[in-house]
Amino acid sequence: MAMVEAGRRAMGWCGAEEERETGSRKAPGSCPRCGGAVVATDVESARRILCLPLCLRNKKKFSCSRCRHALVAIYSSAP
Fold first, then answer.
1. What top-level branch of life does the organism fall under (predicted)?
2. Res 49: pLDDT
3. What is the SS3 assignment for the chain?
4. Cα–Cα distance measured from residue 10 to residue 73, given in angstroms and rounded to the nearest whole number
C-alpha cells in the first residue's frame, strides 16, 4: 500500500494525467466486432504538474457493452 501512495506522489511531481468518469449512456449503433450495444462514456481528464492543474479536457469514449472493445474517443474543443 505504501508503494502505491509513493507512486501517486511521484506522478504528481512529474506531471500525471488523472481521469474520472462523469457519466455514461447508451449510444446509437452497434459494435462492428460482435454486434453488441454501444455505450458512450463522458470522461474528464486533468493534467497536473506539481499538484497544480495545468489543463482540463473533456472527452467522450465509445465502447461495446458486450465485448468491451474501445471503438473511438472524441475530444471536445476548448472555448
1. Eukaryota
2. 80
3. CHHHHHHHHHHHHHCEEEEEEEEEEEEEEECCCCCCEEEEEEEEEEEEECCEEEEEEEEEEEEECCCCCEEEEEECCCC
4. 28
Instruction: For residues 47 and 15, give the distance between their C-alpha atoms in angstroms, rounded to a whole number.
Output: 7
> pTM to 2 decimals?
0.64
The Cα–Cα gap between 19 and 73 comes to: 13
Q: Which residue's entry shows cell 465502447?
A: 63
Per-residue pLDDT, averaged over 44-70, amounts to 86
Task: Let me know: does 40 contact 24? Beta carbons within 8 Å.
Answer: yes
